[in-house]
Amino acid sequence: MSGGVEIHSVPKVSAPAQSNGKLNKFSGQLTQNKMRGGAQAMLYAVGLTEEDMNKPQIGISPIWWEGNPCNSHLLELAQKVKEGCSQEGMVGLIFSTIGVSDAITMGTDGMRYSLPSRDLIADSIEAVTLAQHYDANISIPGCDKNMPGCLMAAARHNRPTIIVYGGTIQPGVRHVDCPALGYKKGDDMTAVDAFESYGAFAVGKISEEERFDVVRHSCPGPGACGGMFTANTMSSALEVLGMSLPFSSSIPAVYPEKAQECFRAAQYLKKLLELDIKPKDILTRNSFLNAITIVNVLGGSTNAVLHLLAMARAADVELAIDDFQVVADRTPFICDLRFVSYLSVIDISPYMSFTSPSGHYVMEDLHKAGGIPALVKYLLKNTDLIDGTQLTVTGKTLAENYEDVPELDFETQNVVRRLETPIKKTGHLTILRGNLAPGTAVAKLTGKEGDRFEGTAKVFDNLDDFYPALEKGEITEGTVVIFRYQGPRGAPGMPEMLGPTGALMGAGLGGKTALITDGRFSGASRGFIIGHVVPEALNGGPIALVNDGDKIVIDSTSREINWFVDEEEQARRRKVWEVSGKDKIREPRGILYKYARDVAPANVGAYTD
To answer: Which of 522, 525, 558, 580 is catalytic?
Structure first.
């Protein structure tokens, strides 16, 4: 990390109010008030001393549990944060919150809980921080939905906050040769290879020994999935937003520098307390535009659209889904990082694909090349895509944070391309509209799909019916596969659906069919793959009225999805749908019921508060 913690003047950002010097102004309401003897007794019981009662209390919230490598090490990192707080004369108090592993739940009913976990994380950190009168917070997220959950909580409680990313996993290493797929012993691999291994095994491409080698060795230890998947996308966004310390997004979980970052976070947090710099002083419209820019530069996950919209709303920042298209249109895609092309082992199906993921490098490689600091410095020096005047948790601006970091060396690294030779001249995130998605839809379109896809619909209200239809030959070239009732309210939970894309590839239909859903697709997929359709089917969107055989046209030039059924027929179908009962929430109780009851549409972030 560069620089110290001294505070510089910040152009274009309103100067934060100076603190009155009392760093425990919230916790002091409990520890300094004789009327709060009961609270004080409880604090003494957990080990606080009389001296501690005069110190600021810092909530430390790791998203920790043992059952996921993205999160299994976060309690250890939280202990480092706690040590740092003690060193700075503050009391760090650890409380954990829940998480859901996207990789473990992928392709199961458990995936419906992934997106709701984001809001549950936000709710729980907000609740503990405000209920316990903590003066500030250091959150330690690891997996996909953790990062936006922590940021949303920070914006809600608006106490000085630093978010320390738990770090990326290192690549695994093959222990045996795999000649059929062109790999040899010693080659790197990631969790994506584990997902894809069954597809290759099922069609006889690889042996059981080769398959198990991938499963056993692709994830060597703690850290989030190593490619430019959702976790690394959102950690990069947080760093550019200014809510994480420099290099936080790229330092691998097991590097000593990650533990050092955790220890040093308290030093920066104390300065935020002294100057009363709060999340809403840092989170501005321009900082969110910076984050959208870096997502496009990196080739990040489409999930960033949902998350950044919800995060901006939590911070009372004006941000709309069309801002993503504006930024994408002016931003080149220049980072050659691995992202999902097809995850091919979601179901035991003879059609599972074993297509390799796109991109060549992992987040550790980007870190070795200079990380987000070197990338942002390159953009600041050569473009006007990034606003370097935005305030960050160091107390300095984004540009000031990166003044002294080494520049990208294009002679020794290939992770980041020169602006003159981008992977794609504009961003990959695409916002579409049309009479099938009047409230928008989201896709990753690279230009390789062509400008237009015209086909006939094949409709599925659930995924169980898809595979039998594929096996019967009911899905052919020119089919537009419609998956509906997969939205935030419909599923409920808006799960990612990766099995069908792999199945179509394995059946030789990749690029020859299109897929449209009110759910989500993760990563990039060959051909026209469109998700986040709004209004969703459960809310009576046009996607609920589509029948098999309807003509659908996708036009990437005009960014439209249109459905060719006359208005009279649409009205007739709507009357039938309105008495079908398909507008009812599927879950009778529990978190998914509450989520479906409260959740907003995907095009505004699928928030629940």
So the answer is: 522
Distance of CA 458 to the CA centre of its chain: 30
33 and 137 both lie in a single domain = no
Q: Are residues 91 and 29 in the same domain?
A: no
Whether 522 is catalytic: yes
What is the number of domains present in the chain? 3
Determine, yes or no, domain membership for 187.
Answer: no
**Per residue in 412-425, pLDDT tens?**
999 999 999 999 99
**Which residue pairs from 504-507 have beta carbons closer than 8 angstroms and sit at least 24 positions apart in sequence?**
504/351, 504/353, 504/470, 504/475, 505/342, 505/344, 505/351, 505/353, 505/355, 506/199, 506/203, 506/344, 506/349, 506/350, 506/351, 506/352, 506/353, 506/354, 507/351, 507/470, 507/475
* Co-location of 462 and 563 in the same domain: yes
**Residue after which a domain boundary falls, among 269, 288, 322:** 322
Residues recorded for the chain: 609
Q: Are residues 111 and 239 in the same domain?
A: yes
Backbone angles phi, psi at 496, to 5 degrees: -80, 140
Print the domain residue range for 549.
433-604
Tens digits of per-residue pLDDT, 361-380?
Answer: 999 999 999 999 999 999 99
Q: What is the rounded CA–CA span in Å between residue 304 and residue 228? A: 12
pTM: 0.93
How far from 235 is each of 168, 170, 265, 409, 425, CA to CA, in Å? 10, 16, 16, 23, 24
Same-domain status, 127 and 40: no
